[in-house]
Specification:
By secondary structure, this protein is of the alpha+beta class. The chain has helices at about 5, 10-15, 25-30, 95, 105-110, 115-120, 125-135, 145-150, 155-180, 185-190, 195-200, and strands at about 40, 45-50, 55-60, 65, 80, 85, 205-210, 215-220.
């Protein structure tokens, strides 16, 4: 059965998030079918949902995926009115193999030949130096371990204090680079991924900007 005939155009898969990009999708970027600003980097250490997964799992290798719409992960190219894809004829590989009636090909593809931001930039692109500087200055912490540590009252306060420093450093880096290099938000998310304070939200950690600086608090769960 073909993907076209089996698709019910319900939009469920698209609303769950844009696809990860794989090696063959580099041709779409080089042809201008996908723009850098359409993409977001998921860094090693983040928690993310695997295809058809029910719980977020640690990311062991960074990858690129299509950005979401607004504050949601709903694929940027999903058209809510038609329940269709605005880039259907130039869609990424993961979308082309997705079939609601047979998820085997999608699961076989998961984690294989993943594209990263380094695949998309030329060796002389000035953005590369900024990315490497950010990775050194603001590495993504092991969020799975942090989640377990936050469960222990004896270590929670010290851990939140350390994370406040890391969140502040990450935001300061982004702010300085955005100002000095006129980076758009979309380009920032491609280059550096999501800010650390957003990555902490699934763990119940909320950030607030106070006169004394960034403060983190753990929601009751």
């Amino acid at each position: 059965m073909s993907i076209t005939s089996s698709c019910k155009r319900c939009g469920t898969c698209c609303r769950q998030g844009g696809p990860a990009l794989h090696g063959p999708d580099l041709a779409l970027i080089r042809a201008g079918r996908l723009q850098i600003d359409d993409l977001i980097t998921v860094r090693r250490g983040e928690l993310a949902f695997q295809p058809l997964g029910r719980c977020p799992e640690p990311v062991h290798h960074e990858f690129l995926k299509l950005a979401g719409q607004g504050s949601t992960w709903c694929c940027a190219f999903f058209d809510e009115t038609t329940k269709g894809c605005r880039r259907y004829h130039h869609r990424p590989m993961a979308c082309s193999v997705l079939d609601c009636t047979d998820t085997g090909p999608l699961l076989d593809l998961a984690g294989q030949d993943l594209l990263t931001r380094f695949d998309c930039l030329s060796a002389d692109d000035p953005l590369l130096a900024l990315i490497r500087d950010h990775e050194t200055t603001c590495p993504c912490p092991d969020l799975e371990t942090i989640g377990r540590q936050l469960e222990h009252p004896a270590t929670k306060a010290a851990l939140l204090a350390d994370l406040e420093v890391a969140v502040s450093r990450d935001l300061a880096f982004r702010s300085q680079v955005a100002a000095s290099h006129r980076l758009s938000l979309a380009r920032e998310l491609f280059a550096f991924g999501r800010p650390l304070f957003q990555l902490l939200q699934p763990l119940g950690v909320q950030a607030s900007n106070t006169p004394a600086g960034i403060r983190l608090a753990l929601n009751s769960r």
